[in-house]
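Technical annex, item 7. During the second reporting period the consortium partners agreed on a shared format for inverse folding records so that results from different sites could be compared directly. Each record opens with the tokenized structure and is followed by the designed sequence. A conforming record, contributed by the partner at site C, is shown below for reference.
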């Protein structure tokens, strides 16, 4: 009896393990295509992979196609030199091919002839992206309808920024520790580096910054550069270039040069030599990302120089090697009377046109700091002579870490589609970023990575979709959030139509639900000081005024919100007149931005017909109810989802519900003290007191 039980238990475990999906394979699952007809059709069409090139990137493409086709179609296929055989999948670099005219270097054409498939591009990278596009089509279970299909990326540099530290921690990382095992490098190459590169290449990401922008100078030492080289060697065959964040005081820290003044010849010489050394080790090194004079980091202003002086000194060290300097605009002085909203503009706008030709300025999507909703950053459209790179945050610092489900594609698109009116209607942020509005050849979009050592890479399985969405939008920002969600679900979770529809709806609503139970109507920056997922609207003291909550919400007996009109900080004046008109009037300002720009009386009637207080407090209740709705919707997917993923997401949704209740009760009770109004019907007053909530939040904040 005992023996039988053990056998049964072992069998159960084997079945469970065979079925369990730990999320490691992301959207790169090459399991047998469920659609038999399609499988047979492709099987007839693809017998071999042919390539005339030994280029390592082409070889990567061929190997990936081989693995994909074998897994998806269940058919062994070989790779061999070009022979022009029937039913071959041919990979070719052909820069003069007429079909490629007008496409970017990374673009590609897939041609379906009677007897062959042909993936052609101007560069090996293009062939790689074409190969992944073909695999994507197979994975989502669709046939190519056109006989000729082409794509071309809109942005040149599609990069991840890792905020990883030498000791393996990740600033604002919620998925374990760093992927980079610095101590083991360069001798040990974790196979995970290759899978990371595959995932990036599959969505068009072609550059990575390995380390935190709050940078340790250690990364520039010889000891670390050989480690960086080892990673660059792994990533190169996937078309990915490596960049480093640097510490501006490195000459001082590493070599005791008495200054780090960018106009001091000793400093200029130091950076030139260091840069030459880097290129002697990594010949295709991408360049530097710099956070300077921000949140305590050193920079050129320490010597009375400008950001442009600092950037240009580095740019000239990089220029002979065709390297780039990416200079961040995330700066803000601690001025209790000022408005942080305006700080970056104040520093950078006067520098427009003063940056070297191999420099870009990287701007966060909004003026404060990756809040769940921000108006677009006023520098977009205001620095026409400077290529501006976009910085989005994939890691969910202000979006519930890895216990909340927030699909970020709608957030990214909202910003990219915003109209700056810089050159009249249609001057969208996307057109600023891709260089088309002001004729810049350089263009870049960066995402602060959400990856870590967790087996499923991103902690919350659903956060994989944010990595995926970032890559897809950097490639083509015209894709809709719905398209991206559907692609991701079909490749990563299930192709069962009803489940796809349920999950897609959850994804598309998730960001708005998060906004509702945390910061509705344009409220912002009321989270805890250290641990940014909880509410702490009562936070009034911090090392800096602009790190408190009261600086932003300005609640009083009259109303709520930050007046940024001409009667207040006048930050609105940084935008084009059309934008000012859109947001400037509290009666007509779209509700999602209302409290960003106006101090609104509690009793003011909004377009919904409710007063501010009623609308504001109701949103919290609706938000919590929506999380409960997410939980019940998720239950419906159970028969169609891997059980390990199903249970994990179910658990995280339960945590999200608990956190949503905390946000609701904390904010409603806190702001009610100012509004002095009852909770609107039919909602019940929270059963907990504000003091009880404060205690809970204190525990979260590790105080
Ligand atoms: C890397 C916010 C984050 C910091 C981050 C900073 C930045 O302030 O809380 O952790 O530092 O942004 O983007 O530089």
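Designed sequence (site C submission):
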């Amino acid at each position: 009896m005992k023996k039988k039980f053990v056998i049964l238990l072992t069998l159960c475990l084997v079945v469970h393990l065979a079925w369990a999906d730990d999320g490691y394979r992301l959207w790169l699952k090459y399991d047998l295509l469920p659609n038999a007809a399609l499988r047979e059709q492709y099987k007839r069409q693809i017998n071999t992979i042919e390539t005339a090139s030994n280029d390592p990137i082409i070889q990567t493409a061929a190997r990936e196609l081989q693995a994909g086709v074998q897994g998806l179609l269940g058919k062994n296929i070989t790779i061999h030199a070009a022979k022009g055989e029937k039913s071959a999948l041919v990979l070719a670099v052909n820069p003069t091919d007429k079909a490629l005219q007008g496409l970017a270097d990374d673009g590609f054409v897939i041609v379906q002839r009677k007897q062959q498939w042909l993936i052609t591009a101007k560069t090996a990278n293009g062939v790689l992206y074409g190969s992944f596009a073909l695999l994507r089509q197979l994975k989502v279970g669709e046939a190519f309808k056109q006989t000729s299909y082409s794509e071309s990326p809109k942005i040149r540099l599609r990069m991840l920024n890792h905020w990883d530290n030498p000791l393996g921690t990740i600033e604002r990382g919620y998925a374990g520790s760093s992927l980079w095992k610095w101590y083991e490098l360069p001798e040990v190459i974790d196979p995970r580096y290759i899978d990371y590169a595959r995932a990036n290449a599959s969505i068009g990401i072609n550059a990575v910054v390995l380390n935190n922008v709050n940078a340790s100078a250690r990364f520039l030492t010889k000891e670390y550069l050989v480690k960086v080289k080892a990673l660059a060697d792994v990533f190169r065959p996937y078309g990915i270039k490596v960049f480093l964040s640097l510490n501006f005081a490195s000459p001082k820290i590493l070599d005791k040069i008495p200054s780090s003044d960018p106009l001091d010849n000793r400093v200029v010489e130091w950076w030139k030599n260091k840069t030459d050394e880097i290129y002697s080790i990594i010949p295709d090194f991408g360049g530097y990302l710099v956070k300077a004079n921000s949140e305590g980091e050193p920079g050129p202003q320490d010597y009375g120089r400008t950001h442009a002086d600092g950037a240009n000194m580095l740019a000239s060290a990089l220029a002979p090697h065709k390297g780039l300097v990416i200079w961040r605009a995330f700066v803000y002085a601690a001025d209790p009377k000022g408005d942080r909203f305006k700080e970056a503009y104040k520093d950078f706008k006067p520098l427009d046109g003063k940056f070297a030709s191999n420099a870009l300025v990287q701007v966060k999507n909004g003026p404060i700091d990756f809040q769940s909703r921000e108006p677009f950053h006023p520098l977009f459209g205001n620095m026409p002579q400077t290529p501006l790179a976009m910085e989005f945050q994939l890691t969910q610092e202000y979006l519930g870490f890895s216990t909340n489900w927030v699909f970020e594609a709608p957030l990214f698109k909202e910003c990219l589609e915003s109209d700056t009116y810089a050159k009249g209607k249609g001057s969208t942020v996307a057109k600023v970023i891709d260089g088309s509005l002001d004729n810049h050849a350089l263009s870049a979009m960066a995402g602060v990575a959400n990856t870590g050592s967790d087996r499923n890479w991103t902690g919350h399985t659903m956060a994989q979709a944010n990595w995926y969405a970032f890559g897809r939008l950097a490639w083509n920002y015209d894709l809709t959030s719905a398209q991206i969600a559907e692609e991701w679900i079909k490749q990563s979770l299930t192709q069962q139509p009803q489940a796809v529809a349920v999950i897609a709806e959850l994804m598309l609503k998730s960001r708005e639900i998060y906004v509702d139970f945390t910061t509705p109507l344009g409220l912002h920056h009321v989270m805890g000081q250290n641990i940014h997922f909880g509410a702490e609207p009562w936070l009034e003291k911090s090392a800096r005024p602009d790190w408190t909550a009261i600086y932003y919400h300005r609640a009083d007996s009259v109303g709520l919100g930050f007046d940024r009109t001409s009667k207040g900080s006048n930050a609105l004046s940084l935008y084009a007149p059309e934008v000012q008109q859109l947001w400037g009037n509290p009666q007509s300002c779209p509700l999602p931005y209302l409290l960003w720009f106006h101090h609104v009386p509690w009793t003011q009637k909004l377009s919904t017909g409710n007063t501010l207080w009623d609308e504001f407090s109701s949103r919290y209740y609706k938000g919590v109810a929506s999380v409960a709705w997410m939980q019940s919707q998720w239950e419906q997917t159970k028969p169609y989802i891997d059980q390990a993923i199903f249970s994990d997401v179910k658990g995280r949704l339960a945590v999200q519900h608990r956190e949503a209740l905390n946000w609701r009760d904390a904010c409603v009770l806190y702001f009610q003290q100012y509004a002095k109004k009852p909770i609107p019907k039919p909602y019940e007053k929270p059963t907990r007191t504000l003091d009880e909530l404060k205690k809970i939040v204190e525990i979260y904040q590790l105080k």
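DSSP finds 21 helices and 16 strands in the chain. The pocket of 4-O-methyl-alpha-D-glucopyranuronic acid is lined by residues 163, 171-172, 213-214, 291, 295, 330, 369, 397 (CB under 6 Å). All partners now use this format for quarterly exchanges.
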